[in-house]
Amino acid sequence: MNKVILMGRLTRDPEVRYTQTNNTVVASFSLAVNRRFVRQGEERQADFINIVAWSKLGEFCSKYFKKGQQVGIIGRIQTRTWDDDQGQKHYVTEVVAEEAYFADSKREGEMGANAAFENTFGNSMPTGGSDFEVSSSDDLPF
């Protein structure tokens, strides 16, 4: 099974391209996803995950997603390779989005936009208050 669920903030506005063969929309962006554990005395670290959204979902992401916004993405991991003009091989691992959700709260007094995400996945995503600090590598389970 190949299924990925991510929640993070966009590091840039989605970049839109169109395929040459049938003019299909492809939106690409990256998410900064916080790591769950923080070692004592260190800052929280994040992983930067490349996301690709095709067709209608790509149109949606390009229209409504902006840099800094918190979003939820469901998709699959995909790897690909290509040779550049100099004959050098390039390897890329990215998440192909199958679903995308707003995860930021709306303005004060309105229902939070992450309600749809929570209705889909429950309260399983870690929040800032639920993380704990690791005081030494001895505390790690591996």
Short description:
With 142 residues, the chain is mainly beta. It is built from two helices and eight strands, in the order βββββαββαβ. Strand 2 (15-18) and strand 3 form a beta hairpin.
Characterize the largest beta sheet: strand count, sense, and whether it forms a barrel.
5 strands, mixed, barrel
Shape: globular
Low-confidence stretches: 108-114, 123-137
Whole-number tally of structural domains: 1
- CATH arch. level architecture: Beta Barrel
CATH class: Mainly Beta
Fraction in beta strands: 35-45%
Q: How much helix is in the residues?
A: 10-25%
Rg from alpha-carbon coordinates: 18 Å
Instruction: Order the strands across the largest sheet as they lie in space.
Output: 1-3-5-7-6
CATH superfamily: Nucleic acid-binding proteins
Distance between the termini: 24 Å
| Mean pLDDT rating | 82
Number of helices: 2
Can you write the helix and strand succession as a string? Answer: EEEEEHEEHE
| Count of extended strands | 8
Helical/strand content category? mainly beta
CATH topology grouping: OB fold (Dihydrolipoamide Acetyltransferase, E2P)
